[in-house]
Amino acid sequence: MSTELINRITVKKDGVYLSTHSSNDDSPFHSWRCGSLSDIYAAEGQKGLDREIMCMLYEYAQLRGSHKSLDRYRYAVNSPKGRAIYDRYTEQINERYESMDKADQDSVWYKPTEKAKEYRQFEREMRLKMYSEIAERCEEYDRKHQNRDLER
């Protein structure tokens, strides 16, 4: 399975651009307009964009390089608060899974039982909340750096 490697995130007037390449591809990074992120940014602003980027980072993408556009996301994921949020939600998801019967657990990904369907819905909801909470660390990063810039 490949991982999408991101080395730049840019918001322009006409949308959100990513500079990426796949981990199983040796071609260079290329910049492209991401329609789904552009739509989310247009509808929800920076907060929605941050949440979706967190989702990407936890599910199928990694940050690469040192471009300043990545700093706020790297901070959110690696901060003690971000890690604590991840641990808290992961624990809740795991506890819910462990509380199911073996038959329900075995059916989560193939012909799910009602309990397995309920678990998957719970997991989706918890992950969305988790991504939103971790994304709030991006705002924390922005505030810290805005204050630092004002002091100069």
Strand-helix topology:
Elements: E1 4-12, E2 15-22, E3 30-33, H1 35-59, E4 61-63, H2 71-78, H3 80-98, H4 102-106, H5 114-151
Parallel strand pairs: 1-4
Antiparallel strand pairs: 1-2, 2-3
Could you characterize what this model shows?
This protein has 152 residues and is α+β, with helices and mostly antiparallel strands. It has two domains: 4-65, no CATH class; 74-151. The protein is built from five helices and four strands; from the N terminus they run βββαβαααα. It has helices at residues 35-59, 71-78, 80-98, 102-106, 114-151, and strands spanning 4-12, 15-22, 30-33, 61-63. Strands 3-2-1-4 form a four-stranded mixed β-sheet, covered by helices on one side. α1 packs across α5 and α2 packs across α3. The longest helix has 38 residues, at 114-151.
